[in-house]
Amino acid sequence: MLNAAPNTLPTPPHVVIIGAGFGGLEAAKALRKADVDITLIDRTNHHLFQPLLYQIATAGLSPPSIAAPTRYLFRKQPNVTRLLGEVVDIDAKARAVRLENGETIAYDHLIVASGATHSYFGNDQWAEHAPGLKTLEDAFNIRRRVLLAFEHAEREEDQATRERWLTFAVIGAGPTGVEMAGTMAEIAKHTLAGEFRRIDSRRARVLLIEGGDRVLLAFPPSLSQRAEEQLTTLGVEVRTSHKVTHIDADGIRVNVNGLEQTIACKTIVWAAGVAASPLGKLLARACALDEASVDRAGRIKVEPDLTVLGHPEISVVGDLALARSYEKDGETKPVPGVSPSAKQMGRRAAKNILVRIAGGKPEVFRYIDYGLLATIGRKSAVVDVVVPLFGHVRFSGLFAWLFWLFIHVYFLIGFRNRMIVLMDWAWAYGTFNRTARVVVGNEKFETKKAVEP
Amino acid sequence: MLNAAPNTLPTPPHVVIIGAGFGGLEAAKALRKADVDITLIDRTNHHLFQPLLYQIATAGLSPPSIAAPTRYLFRKQPNVTRLLGEVVDIDAKARAVRLENGETIAYDHLIVASGATHSYFGNDQWAEHAPGLKTLEDAFNIRRRVLLAFEHAEREEDQATRERWLTFAVIGAGPTGVEMAGTMAEIAKHTLAGEFRRIDSRRARVLLIEGGDRVLLAFPPSLSQRAEEQLTTLGVEVRTSHKVTHIDADGIRVNVNGLEQTIACKTIVWAAGVAASPLGKLLARACALDEASVDRAGRIKVEPDLTVLGHPEISVVGDLALARSYEKDGETKPVPGVSPSAKQMGRRAAKNILVRIAGGKPEVFRYIDYGLLATIGRKSAVVDVVVPLFGHVRFSGLFAWLFWLFIHVYFLIGFRNRMIVLMDWAWAYGTFNRTARVVVGNEKFETKKAVEP
Question: Is B151 a catalytic residue?
Fold first, then answer.
């Protein structure tokens, strides 16, 4: 019997996490002290603070301010192994994921947190003319297009073409669209004012196009109205009830109450549709889920404890999960696609894995709603915050903007980032200058797809 | 005679400047108060502080710290019109330059300051494996390769291939090569230490390969020796008298005193050869210069007043000019290819244009030598500074590093940049962390050419 005595310690359970966004990061952190091996797989080498991505696109911040190397974040958590790679297949039976280089990684527990991408509602050919904003590459692409549009206008002799270069459209008036439009107006009216000789950048038009009947549909109507007023003050032309029917290199066609209109413009930002990461499809197939378990946007309907039907060892968190919040009163509520919900799901999924390892009963997910906030431009924002025992508090204007600033800087990861971001903003606020106005990859002065990072 | 009276003011002379590097920028600034119209043409939208470009490549700084939008720099100089474009032809007879979009711009005076690019001495196929460092794109390319090499090593199972990923070679031990090698060693030994689970980044090798018999050939031998000692202390393996004969995806072949050797490595940085901008050839043809007027590196031999033979209305400044300094004692000396000489040439060329407009006699160029300096890594640098009435002062080590720091921060354009750079460096110095370690454009985890930067 001596031979049967273990010479090595038993291997701890292996938790594989796909995606280093808010959900995946929080899940890995929540397993900090657990006796598990974690492999965190992501296609990029950094965690991105997506709520401030529009600041990269509008040249207000540089990548290091809102993106931290994931490796660095976990340097003091020895149970995490970081892999830079892309999951191309999931084998739920064999409990393994396969990477793009053929490597297979077996798991005991899997957390899928691969997030969302933008969706053109089946019109993928629009992507070329109206890039979305989800990754750093997207942000650089948009930054280049916006800044080069003014350069094109400066060089253009034809009046109509020049005006087309000086017309900017943001499609979709959710928080990202509102932030983009407000900041683009600020760039045209203030940052670039006086820098051109043949054009007046202040004459540029920024249009915010929304299919619904008001901006910020997720907010209460009173705040939507305040946001629209503030946008108008900044010089943004808000066009609600405008449904986009076509996009090409020369502009947008919209349907307004049944009538077709054309908007001539060269620079378009897509902030309208969101679709789940393509990994959702892989997962649904791997777990043999039926159509009812996947929604139109490709999100996976999860069980109350965030696991996949029939696969208690697989959890889905963040934007990829179609989850409901199980309230104390027994009711359920939908969970909004914001970063606090992704973080909360990540923590819940991680804790449930530990409960399951210990042989206990996993808990249902309950979303704690802290509210919503969106900034519009200098000194303006709208806030709908949930105060415990009190309910919703809604306000807008300068104080809302300071509140927005505080929250965003507070949640930025890493002390150094916070300092730099505050400094950059203080500088931008004082001077109207945007420091990150460097365009890379236009050596040939063309917005070629090939050189776009 | 009344009809002949001018109803409009005479048009001021038109000065066209090609290139917004140190030479072109200084020329435009020197014409600040002059009654001339200036058109400044550059392929990028920013002025780049090239001496710190290696800091971008090694993830120590972000672009806004060392690159300023040229438009912003000239926002208060109304006689400057900035054009983002590429000059594809020069017509010296018609006195006009042609841009890539067909636009023709006539000039009365032309300053060509298009600088230099890297040269592979006729082996352009090496470029793919050993990128050089001249533009922001180059810097991002190198940054991506260096950081991803460690990621590849972490994922590689084959021992030999893993070691190849963990071997880094810098070819050419001039200031840029020395700075790159020292900083890469620092990244491997300190910044990344403890962040990987399967490899030990401290075991990475950094080789500095130089064809000559010592590093920093432009410096006095005593400083070369100090630099080599400091590099060795940092962990860099210095290989002098190694002549590169071949480069491919698997490494380098070198000739050492007649013997061929192979160095297996995946990540190679080219810091060896410099060639004049291709505009040199265009200019030589346009001005019908003979072979003797263009050197092997493609630089244009200029007259004592920096103009082109037979074309007093065309000046060449900076790295594109093969200029000599006309000393007080009647002797002439070669001018080194450093930023102070480009700036001094830019100013001289601009002043000579004004002299010529006023009907005076242009002055010869005299280079004021302030010395040379190069940094090696944390706390070490070599300095050879010229003190007026005293001569050369040479020192190395910590004090030299502080001196280097002061000079570089002092000459950075824009107060905000200086603050940020100092903060970034203080942070990096205190923590060994490099904040700009974000890799963009590797969504597919491949170092594809198409997505660079």
Answer: no
pLDDT at B448 over 60: no
| pLDDT digits 0-9 by tens, A23-43 | 999 999 999 999 999 999 999
Q: Which residues, numbered 80 to 109 in chain B, qualify as contacts with chain A under a Cβ-Cβ cut-off of 8 Å?
A: 80-86, 100-101, 103
**C-alpha distances out from residue B199 to A17, A226, B191, B194, B196, Å:** 21, 55, 14, 9, 6
Q: Cβ contact (<8 Å) for A416 and B427?
A: yes
Distances (CA, A) of A86 to A73, A96, A97, B199, B444: 20, 14, 10, 20, 7
Mean pLDDT of B58-87: 88
As a whole number of angstroms, the longest Cα–Cα distance in chain B is: 92
What average pLDDT does the segment B385-408 reach?
Answer: 86
Of A26, A156, A163, A179, catalytic: A179
- Does residue B15 contact residue B111 with C-beta atoms inside 8 Å? yes
Contact A137/B450, CB-based, under 8 Å?
A: no
A146 is written with which tokens?
């916006």
Could you tell me if B274 and B318 are in contact, meaning their C-beta atoms sit under 8 angstroms apart?
Answer: no
Percentage of residues in chain B with pLDDT exceeding 90?
62
Look at B2 and A385; give whichever has higher pLDDT: A385
The Cα–Cα gap between A145 and A133 comes to 13
CA gap B53, B136 in Å, rounded:
7
Does residue B55 carry a pLDDT above 90? no
- Measured between beta carbons, which residues in chain B are less than 8 angstroms from residue A451? 137, 452-453
Neighbour tally for A260: CB within 10 Å = 10
Of B46, B85, B433, Cβ closest to residue A445: B85
- CA angle B231/B424/B215 to nearest 5° reads 20
Instruction: Centre a 10 Å sphere on the Cβ of residue B69 and count the other Cβ atoms it contains.
Output: 26
**Which tokens in the block code for residue A259?**
């009538």
Pick among B84, B201, B432, B449 to test the A interface (most A CBs inside 10 A): B84
pLDDT band at B451 (very low <50, low <70, confident <90, very high): very low
Answer for the pair A208, A195: CB distance below 8 angstroms, yes or no. no
Report d(CA A355, CA A334) in Å as an integer. 25
- Rounded CA-CA distance A109/A313 in Å is 5
**Residue linked to tokens 């009947």:** A213
In the predicted model, what is the mean pLDDT of residues B190-208?
A: 92
Could you tell me if A67 lies within 8 Å of chain B, comparing CB atoms? yes
Long-range contacts of A237-240 (CB under 8 A, 24+ apart): A237/A205, A237/A206, A237/A207, A237/A208, A238/A173, A238/A208, A238/A210, A239/A207, A239/A208, A239/A209, A239/A210, A240/A173, A240/A210, A240/A212, A240/A213, A240/A214, A240/A215
The pTM assigned to this predicted structure is: 0.83
The per-residue pLDDT for range A389-417, each reduced to its tens digit, is 888 899 998 888 888 888 888 787 655 56
